[in-house]
């Protein structure tokens, strides 16, 4: 698939700049892979009732930069791959710039069957820190200022989804996924790392992302909860859930790498001070078990 992206029409790019240069967000690259999967599966018979989209083996290469004026062409190259769910097929997708060897994104995507887990969050509480501590130092504009508040959640962090966000859509067609839900989870991990290390972290890869069937219809009030893996401080597992505990997105093995720019320790110190004031918040059984079931 040849994909043309025009910053004048795909206006969300203005809200995702690093050092003044628009970059194609990871969540939007994954949406392009989902577009390829949708086009392929529409022409194929399947068994069972699809319950979402599973993306695995996600690896990120050089960023898609828009440092020159005008449109930019990308190629989404997809080939069949072995599926984890019998009868549904899978695609290995690479997002490339014409003439460049290294892909920007590599991912295996497939439709999944079965019911999504439901987890209750009754009794979970946190006194949130405000988004004024996040933007800036985070480089996101209004469409990607997805954090309404954040606070401690056991060994990890929780962040609530902002309301009345500007829609994120392609100029040519709507998104297949709901990118702002995954963006909330990734930024939650970034807040955790900024407060812990003083470094701004960006995605390097993800073992799996499962988009559950309710993710497209989710309303306001959703929350991301993440925690680092023991012994792997730059690897996170987490979920995005509704206030009622319905799982929208599950992420296993989100790996980060440091953004290539000098750290600004002042924002990190402010984040750390705010989180330290909430370190004694009580934790419920639901909070403690939410991650134990994430892989399943």
Description of the molecule:
Strand 6 (90-96) and strand 7 form a beta hairpin. This protein is an alpha+beta fold. Strands 1-5-6-7-4-10-13-12-11-9-8 form an eleven-stranded antiparallel β-sheet, with helices on one face. A two-stranded antiparallel ribbon has the order 2-3. It has four helices and 13 strands. It is globular and about 55 Å long. It folds into two domains: 2-113, Thiol Ester Dehydrase, Chain A (Roll); 131-289, Thiol Ester Dehydrase, Chain A (Roll), CATH 3.10.129.120.
Question: Care to count the β-strands?
Answer: 13
Tell me roughly what share of residues is in helical segments. 10-25%
Oligomer: single chain
Instruction: Kindly report the average pLDDT value.
Output: 84
Number of domains: 2
CATH architecture identity of the largest domain: Roll
**Overall morphology:** globular
Number of helices: 4
Helix-strand makeup class = alpha+beta
Poorly predicted runs are 119-124, 280-296
């Amino acid at each position: 698939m040849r994909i043309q992206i025009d910053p004048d029409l795909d206006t969300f790019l203005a809200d995702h700049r690093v050092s003044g240069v628009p970059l194609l967000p990871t969540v939007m690259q994954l949406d392009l892979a989902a577009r390829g999967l949708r086009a392929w599966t529409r022409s194929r018979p399947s068994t069972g009732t699809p319950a979402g989209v599973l993306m695995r083996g996600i690896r990120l290469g050089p960023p898609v930069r828009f440092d020159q004026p005008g449109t930019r062409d990308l190629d989404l190259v997809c080939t069949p791959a072995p599926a984890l769910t019998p009868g549904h097929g899978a695609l290995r997708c690479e997002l490339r710039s014409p003439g460049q060897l290294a892909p920007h994104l590599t991912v295996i995507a497939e439709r999944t069957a079965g019911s999504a887990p439901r987890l209750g969050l009754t009794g979970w509480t946190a006194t949130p820190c405000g988004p004024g501590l996040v933007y800036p130092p985070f480089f996101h504009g209004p469409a990607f200022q997805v954090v309404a508040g954040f606070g401690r959640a056991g060994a990890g962090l929780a962040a609530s989804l902002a309301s009345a966000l500007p829609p994120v859509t392609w100029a040519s067609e709507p998104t297949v996924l709901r990118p702002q839900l995954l963006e909330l989870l990734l930024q939650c991990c970034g807040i955790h790392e900024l407060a812990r290390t003083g470094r701004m972290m960006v995605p390097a890869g993800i073992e799996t992302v499962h988009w559950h069937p309710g993710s497209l219809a989710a309303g306001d009030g959703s929350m991301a909860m993440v925690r680092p893996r023991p012994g792997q401080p730059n690897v996170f597992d987490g979920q995005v859930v509704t206030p009622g505990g319905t799982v929208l997105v599950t992420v296993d093995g989100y790996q980060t790498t440091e953004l290539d720019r000098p750290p600004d320790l002042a924002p990190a110190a402010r984040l750390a001070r705010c989180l330290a004031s909430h370190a004694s918040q009580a934790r419920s059984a639901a909070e403690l078990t939410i991650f134990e079931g994430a892989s399943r």
